[in-house]
Design goal:
Four copies of one chain form a homotetramer. Chain A is α+β, with helices and mostly antiparallel strands. Chain A folds into two domains: about 130 residues, Urate Oxidase, CATH 3.10.270; about 130 residues, Urate Oxidase. In chain A, the strands form two sheets. An eight-stranded antiparallel β-sheet of chain A has the order 1-2-3-4-5-6-7-10, with helices on one face. In chain A, strands 8-9 form a two-stranded antiparallel sheet. In chain A, helix 4 packs antiparallel against helix 5. Chain A starts with a strand and ends with a strand. In chain A, about 50% of the residues are buried. Chains in contact: A-B, A-C, A-D, B-C, B-D, C-D. Chains C and D meet through strand 1, helix 1, helix 2, helix 5 and strand 7 of C and strand 1, helix 1, helix 2, helix 5 and strand 7 of D.
Chain lengths: ~280, ~280, ~280, ~280
Amino acid sequence: MAIRLAQNSYGKSRVRVFRVARHQDRHDVQELDVAVAFEGDFESVHTLGDNSKVLPTDTMKNTVYALARKHPIGTIEDFCLQLTAHFLQRNPQLWQVQVDATETLWARLAHGDKLQASAFTHAGEEKRIAQVRATRGETVVHSGIANLFVLKTADSAFEGFLRDEYTTLKQDRNRILATLIHADWRYAPGVGNFEALWNGVRKSMIEAFVQHHSLSLQHTLYAMGQAVLGDFESILEIRLSLPNKHFNLVDLAPLGMDNPGEVFVPTEEPHGLIEATLTR
Amino acid sequence: MAIRLAQNSYGKSRVRVFRVARHQDRHDVQELDVAVAFEGDFESVHTLGDNSKVLPTDTMKNTVYALARKHPIGTIEDFCLQLTAHFLQRNPQLWQVQVDATETLWARLAHGDKLQASAFTHAGEEKRIAQVRATRGETVVHSGIANLFVLKTADSAFEGFLRDEYTTLKQDRNRILATLIHADWRYAPGVGNFEALWNGVRKSMIEAFVQHHSLSLQHTLYAMGQAVLGDFESILEIRLSLPNKHFNLVDLAPLGMDNPGEVFVPTEEPHGLIEATLTR
Amino acid sequence: MAIRLAQNSYGKSRVRVFRVARHQDRHDVQELDVAVAFEGDFESVHTLGDNSKVLPTDTMKNTVYALARKHPIGTIEDFCLQLTAHFLQRNPQLWQVQVDATETLWARLAHGDKLQASAFTHAGEEKRIAQVRATRGETVVHSGIANLFVLKTADSAFEGFLRDEYTTLKQDRNRILATLIHADWRYAPGVGNFEALWNGVRKSMIEAFVQHHSLSLQHTLYAMGQAVLGDFESILEIRLSLPNKHFNLVDLAPLGMDNPGEVFVPTEEPHGLIEATLTR
Amino acid sequence: MAIRLAQNSYGKSRVRVFRVARHQDRHDVQELDVAVAFEGDFESVHTLGDNSKVLPTDTMKNTVYALARKHPIGTIEDFCLQLTAHFLQRNPQLWQVQVDATETLWARLAHGDKLQASAFTHAGEEKRIAQVRATRGETVVHSGIANLFVLKTADSAFEGFLRDEYTTLKQDRNRILATLIHADWRYAPGVGNFEALWNGVRKSMIEAFVQHHSLSLQHTLYAMGQAVLGDFESILEIRLSLPNKHFNLVDLAPLGMDNPGEVFVPTEEPHGLIEATLTR
């Protein structure tokens, strides 16, 4: 049977850029990590080594810098849209351009109570993410949150589960629930105002996590997704990927002590992993 | 519009296990990192917190240990098959079980020329990977290689590419080509003998990389995939994900020196990324 | 010449513990990563395999858990002091015990404006560190900060430096200054009130960084150290280790644009490294 | 009390360089990661911002590239010696130069049985390290090995240790012993032939690990150090830092099975840490 090239793409990843807007009274800064990927009429590149339709990935990198210079700082969603439009317009050989961006969030440092005009620190571990996938006919925008660690010491149980001969887990009415939120959601076509939406979604998710009386991480995931889709009509779909970061209660009985939910061991491996998409 | 649960799964990741087979004359060892994921009739877990069909992820972990004890050391593909069969047989609520395994490869240490019976070291950075996805009707087996760094100092060019106003890259007839191979391939149904096949595919890929006069990384990727599909009829499809690890020639002119392809800077970011699937 | 054992130690590292204090109206939490190291009369362990004086490192780990249960949550400095005292009292074979602790800082999540009683998130990337080194005669307490990223877009220059035939760096009156603060300081004997001191030192260092008109990272390091020693008499010495995280101005001239301090590339390697100790 | 500057240094870290020697019949390659640190007459840099004696760290980086171009590929020890000599000769303000180098080891790829002239792969995870610390009066050369994972499934026990009320560890006559070797040793003044010595030391250490009937990791550490000092008179001192990488026997009794040393869980944390220096 003949061999043929199926799905293929090429691009540049980890293009880092730090932008400074120098206003009269203050500086604003933004840090991005951008990845660009092209799909298109590239069969002969692979089969014949014909590079005539290949815009170098080095040029993709330069284009990220050039557009960062041309456009004022805005949301990462808008920056991804500028990049996909730029590449599609100038490159007829392309069928699809995908741009992913991860934003490292910065906050102003303070001197006493006064926030500084030009001194900054990382706002936390959390990242803001966006993805635009654009073809000649359609543009799909995703936004998201990565690496947001949340934990509850109350209102979390895991009981009534299935048991088999290898089940040793005990029922738990009062466990620690901890996860590293990775969420991404898809907007309806034509949505703008990404800044307000991102902050709103973040708030809805965290409040759902906080309020929810959790019967399992699946149960909490669903409550978080439902809150977002319930609060924001312009969001068509949300995907949550939640590792169950286990905090194991230490058995202190061999040391002659009880342990009424006070001393735990946080662990990295193994971990549960709960993933689901909620849609309309 | 009503909200509904679309694709969802749950499981345990990073279940590590190290197995020792204690033979009369020698020990054999194997190290795995296993991930199990279930899909099935789990809507009410999410919507109602009903755990009655939920086999705990802790039990998945225990099952990995139990099957590692029951079965002798074999290929990771066979171990994944044992796990998927075990879970599907006992859990009617499941529609699909996916097991991924990553093998850390060990080699025997030597004393003088003599390989030791019970002393070992890591064989390298490279990992052997496998994935089995089994439903009630179908079982799909993938194997792969991750993290295999290869580099050529000759027979690699990148010329004749498209230029636009942001293109500054120079043509290069004699560049360093370096990549970190991540390959995975899908077997035809019913294939066994995974050990010989894995070693054969690895050899085909490396020899294609070595032999190929590269006109681009896409060109080399295709040659590697073609070699594998050409050499092994039992492989239906192969996917390669190849970062272009840039080794930049240092411009020594400002230091008063030439640099005829002798001094390079290896870089981590940004990097190119070439991905393609070859199929029949 | 005879071979002899010089400095030696043994211990347990990365003992992780998460503590919950369950008060009527709220929970408090604390996460630590602890390392314990013993020095003492251990020559025969090495030379003869005589373990009779070796308290297992597994017991060190258990002791961390036990003391976390026995004592209420307090500063990491106090916890390190409890551990060193415990081990020295019971183990006459010890000459010195060193305990290092790294605290992952947690903050309360909010629902609307209301901080939650039992829901938390990571406070940031920054870690609080402490070290106690105790012998039969002396106890030395260090505190510190690790992994605190700070950056200035104004008031930083680097000019007037030495040049040789390999110097290509341009003078810069207006560069970005960025570093990842790693500081540790030594207290005078008998100091307590570690909580207020740590917060005070952190504030002094950040304000010095913010205020300082920097002529080099060395210059800023000194200003930071001087601020701390000037503000806190109970601190005898401070050591700062400051990587110079380079943010390189992108040369946009080849793309037909200027770049008046707006578009930079953050880099991980290579980086400068400035280290100094200030003492009295 | 007056504040004063005590120990201080500045330099460039993570200067990466990849060298190719293009011989008629084959290419040779070498990859280094270099760090340079200066100590000297730098008080006024810190206190006054006077940069007149500061050779920029950017120039240190350029110098690494320039010397990599000027000198043929050799051992990393020789390259560190070239760098320290270069900087000391030209910079009277320096009291000491320290250069650390880490070598990523490369091996030739094969086609069939034939080793290739210009195609390579990483030789493993292990790194070769060197350090030269040179003042106006003295030059001290260290070599070492980092990140070499070794493991034994036989001939390792840990028994007869001290117990207290928190000791739960069981005696073990047949445990897995695993560690990640980090060794560095100091040469007598004037030693050359670093290539043969490094290979010899590596062989001595591994053979000692393999042969030794281990009563503890301390006991094995000492045997390894003793072998090196016994075999090589030109080595004055060796320091070993050996994490005890725990492979925990899984308790399968709750799953209705025994486990005669067959199924283990490799763990990352917590881990033991054994460190010692052997000297003459």
